[in-house]
Amino acid sequence: DADVTQTPRNRITKTGKRIMLECSQTKGHDRMYWYRQDPGLGLRLIYYSFDVKDINKGEISDGYSVSRQAQAKFSLSLESAIPNQTALYFCATSQGPTDTQYFGPGTRLTVL
Amino acid sequence: EDQVTQSPEALRLQEGESSSLNCSYTVSGLRGLFWYRQDPGKGPEFLFTLYSAGEEKEKERLKATLTKKESFLHITAPKPEDSATYLCAVPGGGATNKLIFGTGTLLAVQP
């Protein structure tokens, strides 16, 4: 079984809808991250969490919110989706500040 | 400003034709450099971590090396299954462990 899982894997939605992407991990890591990937722009950090009580904005947090429900679960929400949020979204985990980040399989989100 | 630049953007090789990918970085106080492989529509898969200049790591046909300003991913006698996008990343400044990614090199190995 995969160590980092994401649901759904694909989602098509309409402008203005609320969307939640979920991430679960079995690696026992404290740190979790949400990234988005766009062609030509690489991976950019949306939010990150060091533990259940510590959530921080990344470089592109506008239009997104997150919830860390447990050490193993980290959800990303788009309160009112817009077309330029169409992208690949990845969750990642790590144990310490300079440790390797391990990525989930991604969610392909399309906002029409 | 912390920055990671990868070159070339795309590379096409014949099977068995060795080459190298480059990752140059600008960051204050390097705390590691990571190489990932990413297949289309999938999440990045961890390959290597390098921590100090002169360090080398190998895995099958891949070897990663590190200097004070750049890292190379050498691919020896590549096979078509090595085709993928290769990403490098470094932790940015501060204690957040935010990874700064390059935009990747898209490698295509033709049989």
Structure description:
The complex is a heterodimer of chains A (112) and B (111). Chain A contains no helices and 11 strands. With 112 residues, chain A is mainly β. In chain A, the strands form 2 sheets. In chain A, strands 2, 4, 5, 6, 9, 10 and 11 form a 7-stranded mixed β-sheet that branches. A 4-stranded antiparallel β-sheet of chain A has the order 1-3-8-7, with no helix packed on it. Chain A is globular and about 35 Å long. The model of chain A has no long low-confidence stretch (mean pLDDT 94). With 111 residues, chain B is mainly beta. Chain B has strands at 3-7, 10-14, 19-26, 33-38, 45-50, 56-59, 62-66, 70-75, 84-91, 99-101, 105-110. In chain B, strands 2, 4, 5, 9, 10 and 11 form a 6-stranded mixed β-sheet that branches. A 5-stranded antiparallel β-sheet of chain B has the order 1-3-8-7-6, with no helix packed on it. In chain B, strand 9 (84-91) and strand 10 form a beta hairpin. Chain B is globular and about 45 Å long. The N and C termini of chain B lie far apart (41 Å). The model of chain B has no long low-confidence stretch (mean pLDDT 93). The interface between A and B is medium-sized, with 27 and 23 residues.
What topology emerges from the helices and strands here?
The complex is a heterodimer of chains A (112) and B (111).
Chain A: E1 4-7, E2 10-13, E3 19-25, E4 31-38, E5 42-51, E6 54-57, E7 64-70, E8 73-78, E9 87-94, E10 102-103, E11 107-111
Parallel strand pairs in A: 2-11
Antiparallel strand pairs in A: 1-3, 3-8, 4-5, 4-9, 5-6, 7-8, 9-10, 9-11
Chain B: E1 3-7, E2 10-14, E3 19-26, E4 33-38, E5 45-50, E6 56-59, E7 62-66, E8 70-75, E9 84-91, E10 99-101, E11 105-110
Parallel strand pairs in B: 2-11
Antiparallel strand pairs in B: 1-3, 3-8, 4-5, 4-9, 6-7, 7-8, 9-10, 9-11
